[in-house]
């Protein structure tokens, strides 16, 4: 094994402050946008073998995981923006007498289920915050006296 690296595979040759090379950055982008690893490798301009080797590297895995998180975070934000319209659509279907009964029942069931799920999530959040506060208080020297 030699200390030399192939251009774009390793080292501080990346753009935008990244520790990856341009090819590795392109590979991560391609992995997010292509149907499979073979197409991602082709789009990034590397062999599938090179891409597979990068995918075994902890630093590349971490960067890829972070890129996936960022993409999903953006998608979730868009879904949250559409939530109000989705609720309006459900409520419209639920109360429209011209809508088939099965669709109205399904909409009503969805409204009830999501409403209950929201309450359960809020309750869990309150309980978790209480447990965290209790644990923090237990760590203070005054609490042990």
Report on the structure:
By secondary structure, the chain is an all-alpha fold. It has helices spanning 22-33, 37-44, 48-55, 58-95, 101-139, 141-144. Mean pLDDT is 87; it is low at 1-17. The chain folds into 2 domains: 7-82, no CATH class; 96-145. Helices cover 75% and strands 0% of the residues.
Features of the shown structure:
145 residues, single chain, 6 helices, disordered N terminus, mainly alpha
What is this structure, in a nutshell?
With 145 residues, this protein is mainly alpha-helical. It is 75% helix and 0% strand. α1 runs antiparallel to α2.
The stretches of 5 or more residues where confidence is low (pLDDT under 50) are 1-17
| Largest beta-sheet characterization | none
User: Beta-strand level of the residues, as a percent range?
Assistant: under 5%
Oligomeric status: single chain
DSSP strand tally: 0
Please give the count of helices. Answer: 6
Could you outline the blueprint of secondary structure elements for this entry?
Layout: H1 22-33, H2 37-44, H3 48-55, H4 58-95, H5 101-139, H6 141-144
